Amino acid sequence: MMLLNTIPILLTHNIIILLLIHPLHAIQSIIPLNNTCHNTCSKIPVKFPFGSSFGCGHPIFSRYIKCASGTLQFSTAAGIYTISSIDYSTKSLIITDPLMSTCSSMQNSGSFTLDRASPFTIMENNIFALVGCSRTSPVFERDAGFCDTGSGLNVCRGLYSCRGVEGIGLEPNAPISTCCVYDPTISGGLESGLALPKLQCSSYSAIYGFGGDEGDPMKWEYGISLQFNGSYYSDACKNCEDSGGFCGFSGLDEAFSCKCQNGVNTTSNCYGRGYALSGSWRHKIQTCLTIGGFLLSLIVAFF
Ligand SMILES: *[C@@H]1O[C@H](CO)[C@@H](O)[C@H](O)[C@H]1NC(C)=O
Ligand SMILES: *[C@@H]1O[C@H](CO)[C@@H](O)[C@H](O)[C@H]1NC(C)=O
Ligand SMILES: *[C@@H]1O[C@H](CO)[C@@H](O)[C@H](O)[C@H]1NC(C)=O
Fold first, then answer.
1. What are the boundaries of each domain within the chain?
2. 44 CA to centre of ligand 3 in angstroms
3. pLDDT for the residue 132
4. From atom 1 of ligand 3, which residue's Cα is the shortest distance away?
5. Smallest Cα–Cα separation from 79: which of 214, 178, 195?
6. Is the pLDDT of residue 184 over 80?
7. Is residue 271 a contact partner of residue 242, using CB atoms and an 8 Å limit?
8. How far apart are the first and last CA of the chain?
9. For 57-61, 186-190, 243-247, 270-274, which range has the lowest pLDDT when averaged over its residues?
């Protein structure tokens, strides 16, 4: 008898615990949501001013960033790059160019350029190495002062020691006379990027860190770190986010629009707009589920 009585009680406890642990999942399966904006893309958090799709985030940023086929992409006139991380506190992001050279793989690559009016700038800590340049390249012109002839040469030596250089038709440890590390202290920052065909170089490698070991190019951190303009956040957007919505835009004039999690868009916030998840409805639904679970446990216990 004891045993028969305890089994259903144990089962009910599991049901109650499930309902308590997964209230959001439970709600999502009950209410069909028209979720147009998402807060992640693969594993990267997507927050304002970025948006996961058109109509989400700030309109200026939506021209450059979108979530497509499971990756967060950064697009410019020169190409499409993958965003590997975003740091919202320092307003910076790391992008990787699939055609860029690294120690393990070098290949002919295109240019990296930013549109002049873009809200992004290339961060100063980036090192840009041009590899496989023609001897007549303008970067080697006397008095051009384009290439770093000091510590930059160590970066060239490191890259040219990699097996990957075979990908651009060189032998490992080939002379570094066809390599140039861009020197921002002389020529100024790379505001708009590097146009490779014009510079007569096969490829480029961007390094944003040495991974704690400057002597081992396999450990270097390859990618381009960019700063984004964080001054687009507004009180209207904060009000929308506080109500559980995503800041976005709509219409031909790309006016501010708050996109609520149930698919409704408003000019202000999501409070009182249907069953916005973070509004009072969430609490009502949670309470219903909890009371429901409790009643169920009473019914089962009586059997
Ligand atoms: C950032 O954007 C604001 C608003 O468009 C603009 O006024 C400001 O000049 C920009 N800042 C930089 C550093 O580009
Ligand atoms: C949800 O999406 C469907 C089709 O995508 C659309 O017809 C419907 O109006 C949307 N619902 C709301 C509440 O926006
Ligand atoms: C909501 O979205 C629809 C369709 O995208 C758009 O026509 C309408 O202007 C939007 N409303 C607001 C308040 O943003």
1. 8-31+275-303, 77-228
2. 27
3. 95
4. 265
5. 195
6. no
7. no
8. 12
9. 186-190
